[in-house]
Amino acid sequence: MDKLHLGVLYGSRSCEHEVSIISALQLIKAIDRSKYEVTPIYITQQGEWYVGDALTDMKLYTDFDPYKAGLKRVSLDLTAGSGALIHYEQGKGLLRGIREEIVARIDCFIPVFHGLHGEDGSVQGLLELANIPYTSTGIVGSAVGMDKIIMKRFFRGMGYPVLDGVDCLRKRWQEAPDTMISEIEAALPYPVFVKPACLGSSIGVSRADDQKALRDALELAFSYDRRVLVEQGLDKPVEINCSVLGYDGDTETSVLEMPLTDVGTLDFDTKYLHGSSSAKGMASMGRVLEPEIGEDVSSEIRSLAVSIFNALDCKGVVRIDFMIDRATGHIYITEINTIPGSMAYYLWAKKGVSYSALIDRMVGCAMKAQREKDENRFAFRSNILTNVQLGGKTPKGGKL
User: How far apart are CA 84 and CA 10, in angstroms?
Assistant: First the structure.
């Protein structure tokens, strides 16, 4: 039986570029080579696609030089179902035409992006156009999951519990900062958290306990994004994360985790740099697995996680983050990560699902979704073209 050829996509033009590299190399190492051929596909911060064996060496990325590494720059053939990665090279000598080489044909892509230009539906749209299976959530769910403002509106519209927030625009901040500060203070009590709308890994996120801190936090957040969410804060909430795996209503939840932090929120350093090697990504962060929060609370969080997964028509593996108000016991949804750091494999290992088995199930979800897509009709024939006269009138007197 022929092996499936997996293409692992990672990097891209994102502030979370380095985190994506770590997650991708972890995943590549875990893939069962007896079942799959694997092609790492690194997208640089300039948007160039490269393939080559050297990409599995973490040292390559500290000072990336594709010429020194002997990599090949490629493009994806967008012909539906092709899956070809094509390398173009200038010919030499008398025949100086462009030579075309197909370096791989991918059966299924595994996007391992974090942030914009990868986790936000953009690459998912590209893969839909190319009609190739891929393991992440689709275009709509990915786009909603990336945008904190739209995500909160979606959650609220579905009746899910979310904290109050205020949406802010960079243009208005530049024109009337004092007015914006006043509006935020009228709507929300301190503390508040200020977040760029379309960033992850807690980049650009700040807590503000007074007006000066709020002003500084807004300046920082607007340096990363033209749209910012200011959200009501809780006093040292209990943070709980839950991963969900599946597709099309067939879902399973992981064990729950309680991230450990002394500051009341997870910043970038806490997630990736504190107390352990950053090469381990989210898997290195301090956490309590299966925290003692009571069976009723655990069940409610799992139920909410599955409901959100299905409402956004998710696919593969996601992680949904929650907060519990210590004072009231109320549960609030923080966000969904449609491509979670380290693919949340550490939450599945506790249930006896190895990383390689998790990848198998992700690929299975992708192939099932593609089969269902291929059952759809994408053509509708009519006689409209035979009756059209461009710039004139149709036989029945109507204009085009």
Answer: 17
